[in-house]
């Protein structure tokens, strides 16, 4: 029965999304906050070159400027889960947009390096909110058949933001030095305001409403998010069971158990987790760790420097090559979100990391050749460098990029989901910050080719982790089936025997 339902869900995925455009539109708006985060990453890759020239700062200061945003995102990611349990998923998105607006304003003014750092820190808190809340909201309003597609939208928005940032580098880079980088950073205030008002038109997550005991409100939202009254009723019954509300309760507002309002979550996540929750937490932390430990931040944030090492000496050449990175990234994430509910999360993880390992190895070889080759060999090596950079970005974007956020938004039990996801984002930001703040020092210490050989070695370890610790979650219901995915075979057998 479950298998036939799963097959039907997969085959009707596109049809389901086409029928319910409202859920799709809500996910798009929620994911728009991720464009702001992606834009900041993309535009900073070029802005750093102009900031260093204008403010006369050192490489160390530039690394701090690049990484401080993600370090401060820890504050946002670790508090966003609790905030979203208190005020709801929708208003948490508004809070993130407002914080990002203030940070962008500081960066756009940029009177000195200290003001830039302050702006990056404030914007970082907003990024932490964005990375945590957008996938969780999308997962909670979607059906199992389209959850992978809708939960991938934040990642495509990040990629789109990065591409827009690269284009802004090229356009604003033609302005006088004193205005160019400030325009690059400050223009993000405009979409921040638009997002804050757009979110108010969205419904609240029906799962959060149920956790507050607002059953009638949850039912009304589900009717708008689903394709039929029967589907809405079925999903509401599943949510009520998970929350611990009697299925017979049909009042407008009922008393939901306190444990589903955010109390005791950190204790059950970190101090006294069940074996299943422990395996879920290991998977969530691991996929976020390896998403950045394999080197994507080095390529996205420092691509102009990599292309300079490869022989593209002018800023226009570097920015145009970097725009190519953004185009490849966006294209393959679009492909990934079409495949994630058909192929599955696990297969995309493993194929993605395989391609990344091969690309990183090739990039290490080519960059080492460029450093030691004669002038006559450089042209072919430069072309190969571009090919391997693009293939690495393509491999990352079809798996580790979007699927990480899909996976972590769906594997936690409902009452642990918001704060569990926030813990995963915290690990993600620590790794992002570590890579951003250390790459220049790393390649100066072991050569740029050696740095990519190191990332390839980390990729091999990552492949083993994904193979052993990340079971398939495609098509599984959030409320009823996800816990079974992370049960060990002997535990499943024991549960079945007890049921009999």
Number of helices: 24
**Largest sheet report:** none
Give the name of the CATH architecture of the largest domain: Up-down Bundle
In the predicted model, the low-confidence regions spanning at least 5 consecutive residues are 1-19
Q: From the alpha-carbon coordinates, what is the Rg to the nearest angstrom?
A: 23 Å
Q: Care to count the β-strands? A: 0
Average pLDDT confidence is 81
> What kind of assembly state do the chains in view correspond to?
single chain
The figure for the number of domains is 2
Shape: globular
Assign the CATH topology of the largest domain.
Answer: Growth Hormone, Chain: A
The level-1 CATH class of the largest domain: Mainly Alpha
Please give the share of residues in helix: over 70%
Per CATH, the superfamily of the largest domain is: MFS general substrate transporter like domains
Structural class: mainly alpha
Tell me the fraction of residues in β-strands, as a range. under 5%
Distance between the termini: 18 Å
Strand-and-helix sequence, N→C? HHHHHHHHHHHHHHHHHHHHHHHH
């Amino acid at each position: 029965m479950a298998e036939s339902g799963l097959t039907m869900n997969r085959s009707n995925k596109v049809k389901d999304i086409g029928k319910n455009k409202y859920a799709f539109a809500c996910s798009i708006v929620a994911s728009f906050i991720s464009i702001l985060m992606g834009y900041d990453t993309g535009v900073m890759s070029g802005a750093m070159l102009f900031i260093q020239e204008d403010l006369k700062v050192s490489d160390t200061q530039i690394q701090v400027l690049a990484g401080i945003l993600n370090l401060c995102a820890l504050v946002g990611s670790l508090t966003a889960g609790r905030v979203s349990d208190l005020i709801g998923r929708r208003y948490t998105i508004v809070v993130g947009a407002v914080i990002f607006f203030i940070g962008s304003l500081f960066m756009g003014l940029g009177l000195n390096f200290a003001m830039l750092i302050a702006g990056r820190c404030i914007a970082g808190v907003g990024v932490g909110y964005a990375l945590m809340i957008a996938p969780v909201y999308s997962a909670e309003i979607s059906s199992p058949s389209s959850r992978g597609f809708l939960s991938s939208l934040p990642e495509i928005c990040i990629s789109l933001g990065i591409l827009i940032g690269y284009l802004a580098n090229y356009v604003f880079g033609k302005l006088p030095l004193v205005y160019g980088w400030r325009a690059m950073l400050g223009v993000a205030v405009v979409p921040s305001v638009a997002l804050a008002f757009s979110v108010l038109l969205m419904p609240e997550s029906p799962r959060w409403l149920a956790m507050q005991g607002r059953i009638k409100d949850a039912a009304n939202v589900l009717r708008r998010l689903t394709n039929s009254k029967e589907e809405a009723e079925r999903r509401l019954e599943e949510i009520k069971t998970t929350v611990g509300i009697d299925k017979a309760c049909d009042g407008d507002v009922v008393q939901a158990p306190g444990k589903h309002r955010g109390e005791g979550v950190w204790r059950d996540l970190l101090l006294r987790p069940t074996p299943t929750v422990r395996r879920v937490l290991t998977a969530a932390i691991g996929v976020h760790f390896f998403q950045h430990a394999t080197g994507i931040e080095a390529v996205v944030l420092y691509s102009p420097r990599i292309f300079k090492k490869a022989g593209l000496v002018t800023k226009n050449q570097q920015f145009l090559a970097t725009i190519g990175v953004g185009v490849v990234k966006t294209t393959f994430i679009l492909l990934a979100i079409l495949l994630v509910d058909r192929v599955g999360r696990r297969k995309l993880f493993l194929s993605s990391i395989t391609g990344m390992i091969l690309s990183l190895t090739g990039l290490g070889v080519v960059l080492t050749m460029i450093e030691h080759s004669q002038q006559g060999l450089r042209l072919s090596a430069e072309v190969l460098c571009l090919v391997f950079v693009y293939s690495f970005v393509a491999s990352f974007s079809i798996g580790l990029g979007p699927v990480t956020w899909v996976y972590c938004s769906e594997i936690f039990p409902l009452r642990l989901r918001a704060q569990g996801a926030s813990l995963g984002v915290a690990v993600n930001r620590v790794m992002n910050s570590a890579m951003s703040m250390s790459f220049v020092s790393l390649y100066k210490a072991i050569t740029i080719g050696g740095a990519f050989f190191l990332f390839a070695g980390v990729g091999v370890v990552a492949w083993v982790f994904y193979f052993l610790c990340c079971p398939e979650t495609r098509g599984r219901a959030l409320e009823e089936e996800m816990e079974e995915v992370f049960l060990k075979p002997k535990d499943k057998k024991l549960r079945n025997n007890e049921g009999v």
